[in-house]
Amino acid sequence: MDKKRGKKSLNINPKSDMTYMVLNEQIERYQKRLKCPICNIEEKNAILTKCFHVFCYKCLKTRYETRQRKCPKCNQNFGGNDYHKIYIE
Amino acid sequence: MDKKRGKKSLNINPKSDMTYMVLNEQIERYQKRLKCPICNIEEKNAILTKCFHVFCYKCLKTRYETRQRKCPKCNQNFGGNDYHKIYIE
Ligand SMILES: [Zn+2]
Ligand SMILES: [Zn+2]
Ligand SMILES: [Zn+2]
Ligand SMILES: [Zn+2]
């Protein structure tokens, strides 16, 4: 096992390690793009219809309920009718 | 070069071909998820705020302008103020 690689290790032939790393990095970029930038845990599944920035529903609901009612990306105020679940798939 | 593999071919050791395929399939799933399901070309970058289904702006604009004003996913009618650019990232 390669101890240098911090992530999930798979048995890979060292000759193809570069390709493996390139593909893995691409996957990580997609995962990051699809994750809520507030919690970095849930997937993006909700939108603020004042500014159309995308987060997860849980985070928007919590922020609404705790009166942090500004978009974390652009500071636009939002109300109870301004956050909605979306279906990216 | 492996002629059986239809896609972009990279020099991969056959022993790690399975891992390579698994990673590649995952990348393809992400690409599909992020693509507009109408044109399958542009990335998802617009939303219908009647039903919160996601497409590309170009497709929604064309459909609006050619009077095909129903969501392709759920048939909800939409008007000129019901489609908006979004920022998934
Ligand atoms: Zn979140
Ligand atoms: Zn915003
Ligand atoms: Zn499209
Ligand atoms: Zn719809």
From TrEMBL, chains A, B:
Catalytically driven reaction(s): S-ubiquitinyl-[E2 ubiquitin-conjugating enzyme]-L-cysteine + [acceptor protein]-L-lysine = [E2 ubiquitin-conjugating enzyme]-L-cysteine + N(6)-ubiquitinyl-[acceptor protein]-L-lysine
Family: Belongs to the BRE1 family.
Localisation: Nucleus
PROSITE patterns in the cross-refs: ZF_RING_1, ZF_RING_2
Ranges in coiled-coil conformation: none
Superkingdom of origin: Eukaryota
Single Gene Ontology BP annotation: chromatin organization
Enzyme class at the top of the EC tree: transferase
Positions of the RING-type domain: 36-75
Major location category of this protein: nucleus
GO cellular component entries: HULC complex; nucleus
Gene Ontology MF, one: zinc ion binding
Swiss-Prot/TrEMBL keywords: Chromatin regulator, Coiled coil, Metal-binding, Nucleus, Transferase, Ubl conjugation pathway, Zinc, Zinc-finger
Methyltransferase recorded as keyword: no
UniProt-recorded name of the protein: E3 ubiquitin protein ligase
